[in-house]
C-alpha cells in the first residue's frame, strides 16, 4: 500500500491550492504552516482519523496516518480527489490563461483548483456562516460549532459535526456558543433537510448536476442568496457567473476601472473572454494579485 497519491498530469501545488480558499482555516482542516502540512480529520470508515498531507514532489502528495487499513486508504484517496476537484479538466482554462500575461503562470505554479469540503452539507453550512460578516468572524463561528465534532485519536483536531449532532445541540447552542446570530434558523433548516435525506445534494456531490442547474440547487437552501449560490456552484465546477459582492466591486474598481465603481454587468463582461471559466479567471487573478492574503 503506497503512501503517495499520484496527481493528474496537470501540476498541483498543495500549499498554493490550499491558500486559494479559506476552507483550510475551518474544521476539519488544520494547516500547519511550519511543516507545510494539511491535517484533515475524517472518517474514512468507522473510525475517526487524522490524515496528514504534504507535497512530496511535483506529481505526488504524501499521505500519512499510521494504522490505516487498505480499505481506509482507498476511501482517503476518493475523498482527496473530491475535496481538491481533481476530476475537473482544467486544460481548456489553462489554454485561455496562456493568452493572458497575468494568468499565464497559473499552470506552472500548480494553481487553478479550489478546495471544497467533503460534502454539500459542510460547504453550505460554512457558506451560511460566512454571509454578511467578516471572514475572521466566520472562522470563529465555524470553530465554535466544530467543538461539537469528534476528536481525532491524538491531538486537538476535530471532525466537522454531523447534522444530527448539530440538531441535538440545538438552536440555543448555535446562538450562545457559535455566535451565529440570525443564521441559526438557516443552519437548523439545513441540518433538518440533511437528516431527512437530500437526494439532490447526493447527486450534486457525485458530480451528476452541472452548469447553471447548480445555481438553482444551492439557491434552494434557506440563507443562500444569488451571490452565495454562485460561489457554491463554483466549488462544484460551474464558473459561468461571478459572485459579485462588495469585495469584488472594490477590487475591480481599484484594479481595472481606475477607481470608478463598476456595475455588476461591467464586472461580468470584463471576464467575458474566459466564457464558462470567467469566475475562475477572476478568482485566480484575485489570488495572484494578493487580493486576499490568508492568515495562517
Question: What report would you give on this structure?
Answer:
It is a single chain. The protein is α+β, with helices and mostly antiparallel strands. The chain folds into three domains: 4-89, TATA-Binding Protein, CATH 3.30.310.20; 120-225, Hypothetical protein, domain 2 (Endonuclease III, domain 1, Orthogonal Bundle), CATH 1.10.340.30; 246-288, no CATH class. Helix content is 43%, strand content 9%. The chain contains 13 helices and five strands. The chain has helices spanning 14-18, 70-83, 91-97, 120-129, 135-145, 163-176, 184-196, 199-205, 213-219, 226-235, 246-255, 264-270, 278-288; strands at 4-6, 29-32, 37-42, 49-57, 60-64. The chain has a five-stranded antiparallel beta sheet with strand order 1-5-4-3-2. A hairpin with a 6-residue loop joins strand 3 and strand 4 (49-57). Helix 4 runs antiparallel to helix 7 (184-196) and helix 9 (213-219) crosses helix 10. The model has no long low-confidence stretch (mean pLDDT 94).
Biggest β-sheet: strands ordered side by side in the sheet:
1-5-4-3-2
- What's the β-strand tally? 5
- Approximate shape: globular
Examine the secondary-structure arrangement and name the CATH architecture of the largest domain. Answer: Orthogonal Bundle
Q: Which ranges are low-confidence, i.e. pLDDT below 50, for 5 or more consecutive residues?
A: none
Class from helix and strand fractions: alpha+beta
| Biggest beta-sheet profile | 5 strands, antiparallel
Work out the strand percent: 5-15%
Q: Distance between the terminal alpha carbons, to the nearest Å?
A: 33 Å
User: What letter string, H or E per element, gives the SSE order?
Assistant: EHEEEEHHHHHHHHHHHH
The name of the CATH superfamily of the largest domain reads: Hypothetical protein, domain 2
CATH level 3 topology of the largest domain: Endonuclease III, domain 1
The CATH class of the largest domain turns out to be Mainly Alpha
Radius of gyration: 19 Å
SS summary, helix count: 13
Helix content: 40-55%
Give the rounded overall mean pLDDT. 94
